[in-house]
Design brief:
Blueprint: E1 2-3, E2 8-9, H1 21-45, H2 50-61, H3 65-80, H4 85-100, H5 103-115, H6 120-134, H7 136-157
């Protein structure tokens, strides 16, 4: 099996000669298919999680891309052909993952909820609900994740997170009442 990023045989570590044109075309097709899977994650979450990137690399390297395509197709059906809508879906995922104590995936779905138009107050509400359904550890995890997202945004905006704007707390909406992207949120 050849590592497509380095052009070396993964079992022997030796350089593999360039593939014939027909094989190169197949690699381009696989690369395009993998990129299509990545785009589905970008659409729902705003980014491709590191774990998905790693799975896609393995799937491409070992001829298992259909598995990842099937997972992405199922996710697409469940997340987009669902009466809850993208924002509520991401909030539900966030809450379920808090209850399970899964910090990394919960953080991904909190960011996905913001990407889908959720407000910070809604993330806090989910964390508070987790307090009732899963206890203080789930609530603490949720508030830790929300605080971390806000801290990350403050770091992007400048020292105080205000990004040069005045005013009170952030309800997540712009002047026209539309949800702002997560990169424009602030905690004060």
């Amino acid at each position: 099996m050849t590592d497509v990023t380095t052009g070396t045989d993964v079992t022997t570590g030796t350089e593999v000669p360039a593939a014939p044109d027909a094989l190169s075309a197949a690699d381009d097709t696989a690369a395009g298919r993998a990129e299509a899977v990545r785009e589905r994650y970008r659409t729902t979450l705003g980014a491709v999680p590191g774990g998905v990137q790693a799975r896609l690399r393995l799937a491409q390297d070992f001829g298992r891309l259909p598995t990842e395509e099937a997972i992405a197709a199922l996710r697409h059906i469940v997340l987009t052909d669902n009466p809850l809508g993208a924002r509520v879906q991401q909030l539900v995922h966030f809450g379920q993952l808090l209850a399970l104590g899964r910090a990394g995936p919960a953080r991904i779905h909190a960011q996905g909820a913001l990407h889908a138009g959720a407000r910070v107050a809604e993330l806090i509400g989910v964390a508070e609900t987790a307090l009732i359904t899963a206890g203080v550890p789930a609530y603490a995890l949720g508030t830790e994740i929300v605080a971390g997202l806000l801290s990350a945004e403050e770091g992007k905006d400048g020292e105080d997170g205000r990004g040069g704007r005045d005013g009170g707390g952030d309800d997540g909406d712009d002047a026209g009442g539309r949800p702002r992207p997560a990169g424009q949120l602030r905690a004060d």
